[in-house]
Amino acid sequence: MFTTNFIHQPSESTSPNSCSITPMKTRIVMNKIKHLAVSVATACSLFHCVEVHASPVERKLIEQAMKIAGREGLEKGAKEAAERSAEAAIRTIGKEAAEHAVNRGGLQLLEAGARHGDDLWRLVGHVPEGVHYLAGKPSEALALARRFGSEAVRLEARVPGMAEKAAAHFGEKNLALLAKAPPEQVTRLIGYAERAAEPAVRQSLFDRWVRSGGHVLEVLDRHKALILTSGLTLALLDTAHGVSNGLEHAIPLLPEKAPEAVAKFAAQLGSSFVYSSLIISAAIGVCIVWRFRKPRPPSSANAGAKTQGP
What we know:
By secondary structure, the chain is mainly alpha-helical. It has helices at residues 2-8, 16-52, 56-69, 76-93, 95-116, 118-126, 131-136, 138-148, 150-158, 163-170, 175-180, 183-193, 199-211, 215-221, 224-230, 234-244, 254-257, 260-269, 273-291, 300-308.
């Protein structure tokens, strides 16, 4: 009975289902172990790369930036970010340009590069003189570049707060010229543009500023109170542009050259009938005074000669 029961009792080792399920489970477990091992190996290799991948040039950049910032060391996360940023800088703009930029922008520039990546380093390559602005306000600089181009960033770096106003008043095409102008001229020019009565006046102001080499601003400065009160007009620009071209030097010659010089001067002055009339009237008055002026008394030598006679 025992034997019979033993012979006919199903065994786990001889069960067909048991033989087919066990190898499948084994394969599944082994595959999971392999995937886990690959993931761990990959993570370890990436961690290893972060720790030791910095080249001597990249380490030099980081040390240079730390020296400028007065830092002796960096935390692990900050060091890894600086290494990534240094690698991106060298890859994007080259070793020499990266060293020059980090020399001026320091650790702040590397940190900005770590946050904004290749886009920031490309902008550094286009506007190397704007490194301090790019390091201090990278998000603003990138937004400005996307809207108006790199010349807007160059202008903003030289004359803070003026790039958007310049683009609005004079157009994106003129930003490159404004970026090369003296900062104080750009500030004054935009200030007068804001007082312009209409867009045509702003464009005329810009054109006359270019033609006069900036001298028209000096003439407008003499009428600043009037411009602040009533605004900038084409008539005032005509006068200022005429004076900036040197026509004021004709005024001392009016008594000798009138009335021809007066008419010519008035014609050169521009399209304003009122200004021309005023100048002609003033010149005629000067001529009348000059004509009927009292003769000078004879000198003592001449008087003595007349008294002695022949």
